[in-house]
Amino acid sequence: MTYCVGLRLKSGLVMLADTRTNAGVDNIATFGKLHLFEATGERVIMLAASGNLAITQSVFNLVSDGFESSSSGKVESLYTVPSMFRAAQLVGEAIRRVYTTDGEAMKAQSVGFEVAMLLGGQIKGRELRLFQVYSAGNFIEATDDTPFLQIGEHKYGKPILDRAARHDIELGDAVKLALVSMDSTLRSNLTVGLPIDLAVYRRDGLKVELRRRITEDDPYFRGLREQWSTALREAYKHIPPPDWMS
Questions:
Q1: How is domain 3-238 classified at the architecture level of CATH?
Q2: What are the residues whose beta carbons fall under 8 Å from the beta carbon of 155, sequence distance 6 or more?
Q3: Separation CA 201–CA 11 (nearest Å)
Q4: How far apart are CA 172 and CA 216, in angstroms?
């Protein structure tokens, strides 16, 4: 399993993904799940994935190398699509193409076709957008009212985002929120693990502002985890007990 989160904000885009892949307690490996498609000055597109690794890698390769779209009849990739909406459609088509190729064989082996993707970015002259693409190839979009999307083991990291994620927060605060959300997931679910990949994009910049792999030795992340735990304990202590307790 995995955990990925994306925040589309007034100031830009933050995406974060873990790297743990496991097929049993004795078969754990590290694979990057956050891919960047960048042409400086023209486009920045980020794609993160959860689910079956073979499926997600096939999709990554299709949208990177390009394939003939059934809807347009042209060979398209994330480096050539004219809009982020078309990019989301292309990712959906790629997922359906992998299902057509491998779905029945996987079903025969009792393997579920499990995949979900976060697609965010901006193309020159277009708006910054963030989508969540499902295994059927359909998708939803983040909005100003709901500026974040999650895939994978999202339940542990969602409460902090529900309380604090707002469209107008700055990128630095968004990075902190994403990291706290990831830390909550790391503490509660062993199928999600370090290192984690972070990418930050500033609106209209048309270049990646920050790309970083965060390991257990990262001093900032280690300090954030300790400070967040301490802050939670102190906040809990300062809340008075119920007045109906004797």
A1: 4-Layer Sandwich (3.60)
A2: none
A3: 9
A4: 20
- Confidence grade of residue 125 (pLDDT, cut at 50, 70, 90): very high
Threshold 0.90, pTM exceeds: yes
Give me the pLDDT at residue 244, please.
Answer: 93
Strand partners, 37: 45
pLDDT band of 87, cuts 50, 70, 90 = very high
**Whole-number percent of the chain with pLDDT over 70:** 98
Instruction: Please report, for the chain, the start and end positions of each structural domain, with discontinuous segments joined by +.
Output: 3-238
Going by C-alpha positions, the residue among 199, 168, 8 that lies closest to residue 88 is 8
The count of C-alpha atoms lying within 13 angstroms of the C-alpha of 146, restricted to the half-sphere facing its C-beta, is: 10
- CA–CA dist 246, 239 (Å, integer): 16
Distance, in Å, from the CA atom of 149 to the CA atom of 49, rounded to the nearest integer, reads 12
